[in-house]
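Still learning. Any example?
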Amino acid sequence: MNRSRTVRERVRAEITREIVEIARRHLAAHGAAGLSLRAVAREMGMVSSAVYRYFPSKDDLLTTLIIDGYDSLGRAVERADADSDPADHGGRWRAACLAIRSWALANPHEYALLYGSPVPGYRAPQDTVAPAMRATLVLGGIVADAHRAGALTAPSGDPDALPGGMRADAARIRELVMPGVPEEVAARAVTAVAGVYGWVSFELFGQFQNAVEDREAFFRHSVATLGALIGLPAPVGESAA
C-alpha cells in the first residue's frame, strides 16, 4: 500500500513538472494574461478536467510559476554572494546585482511575470512572500554585514531629517532585511535596490533601445554608484570613485 502510494506520488510529481514546463513555454509565447489551462491540457494530450486535478485554477498555476521564478532568482543571487569573499562587501554587492541582471536576461519572461505589469485579476497569495524575499535578503544582508564590520561610510546629512512616515517605513524594512543598520542607511538601501531592479527592467523592456549600447558597462557603473549611495566600499582591488 505504501509502495503504491509512493508510485502515485512520483507520477503526480512528474505530471506536475510537465504541466509547469509547458506553462512556462506558453508564458514565453503569450504572456501571463494569455496563459490557459485548456491550452496546456491540449499540448499534454489531456482533457482539461484532468489538469484541473493538479491546478484547480489558472491562478494556482500562476502562483507556482511565480514561486518557481522567485526561488530561481533567489538561488542565483545566493550563489553569487556565497562565491564572494565575505569580507569584500562591495564585491558581494556587485556580484549579487550582476546575478540579478544575468538571471533576468536568461529568463526574461519569468522576470516580466515577477516584476512587470500585474496580471489582471490575479492576487498573489502569502505563499509567494518568502520566495520573493530571497534575493532582497541577500542584498540586505550584505548591507547589514558591512555595517557590523564598520565598513559603511557614514551617510551625510541629519538622519532626523527623514520625514516621519519615511522613518517608520525605513525602520520596518530595516528590521525585515538588514537588522541593526541606521534608518538613513536603510532608506538609502531601499533606493539602491529599487535602482538595480529599475535598471534591469529598463533594459529588458526596451527603454534603452537606440540609447545605451554598452549596457553591461552602464549597469556595472550604476551598481557601483548605488552601492556608494548606501555607503558600501568599492570592491577589494578597486579604488573608490
